[in-house]
Amino acid sequence: MSAANLDQFGRRIEYLRISVTDKCNFRCLYCMPAEGLQWLPKSEILSYEEIAAIVTQLAAEGVSRLRISGGEPTIRPQLEKLIGMLRSITGIEDIALSTNGVRLPELAKQYRDGGLDRVNISVDSLRPERIAEIARRDMGFDPVRSATAAELAGLSPIKLNVVVMRGINDDEIEDLARLTIDHPWHVRFIELMPVGEMANLTWDHVVPSSEVLERAANAGPLSVDEGPARGNGPAKYFRFHGAPGSIGVITPMTHTYCASCNRVRLTADGRLRTCLFGDHEVDLKTPLRDGFPLGAIFRDALNNKPLEHELLQMRTGGLRALSQVGG
User: Fold this and answer.
1) Residues 32 and 23 sit within 8 Å (Cβ to Cβ)
2) Backbone angles phi, psi at 207, to 5 degrees
3) If residue 55 lies in a helix (H) or strand (E), which one and from where to where?
4) Does domain 11-324 have CATH number 3.20.20.70?
5) Is the dihedral angle over the CA atoms 151, 161, 135, 81 positive or is it negative?
6) What does the domain layout of the chain look like in residue ranges?
7) How far apart are the first and last CA of the chain?
8) 10-residue mean pLDDT series, the chain (327 residues)
């Protein structure tokens, strides 16, 4: 592989997160204001053909792993069509999906048939009334049913992402960890990232991952584990003895992992964002629609990718909500 996908600090950027919509059918406490946001005009949203064209050019620059996100990607019609288009691109080795999981029972098989490899599901509670409170929507979401549907469809590994919030859902850490004893799922506890207009969630709501592991260990001794065989993320994994699944912790607040960052993000309106909480982004939509090649633009963007984010200083690079870039 060439050095085309090395950034200015020598990090190999091979992972692209693709937001296909800024809209969502949830209004989660930590992700979007209760009233929602001003949605992007349809004309500004990349078509599936445009997304595939961008990925084709970035794959030639060393991008090989993709994650489809939103907003909530499953609300965009015929997402399996895009998955199939991306699967056919030379150089793409892995396609994942991040979703709130509500529509997986009806769509998981279509996505798998289209070429999807694996899925991450947001699961912030196992209690129906609390799920509705956190999501600020009552859609009858059953995370175990959705994860089971994904498993039966052949998606693997299945990761359940839990944003831990003190006083809101941290009393379920042990119950969520126990899912890995009965299922080959990977439950990842993510430290809350107070962002933009979610000012009602502060440092007081952050539960350090060290505390999460202590509380998860009430279900049994944990040992260090390699975690799922496939993945692109920064989680550190642990496992109960004999368990088919594993527990992961992701620590954006107490221990940043910027030094090993391997990703960039494509927003729904065609901007390449080189850091989730940075302010550096590059317009790819305009040159694409004007017929200009993107390789040199991508390489220049990597040369300006920052060393680390500034979330700890409460700088969020202009983000009002995580939903704007798919987290």
Assistant:
1) no
2) -110, 110
3) helix 48-59
4) yes
5) negative
6) 11-324
7) 28
8) 78 95 87 75 95 98 96 96 98 97 97 98 96 90 97 97 95 98 97 66 86 96 89 83 96 72 93 85 97 97 84 48 53
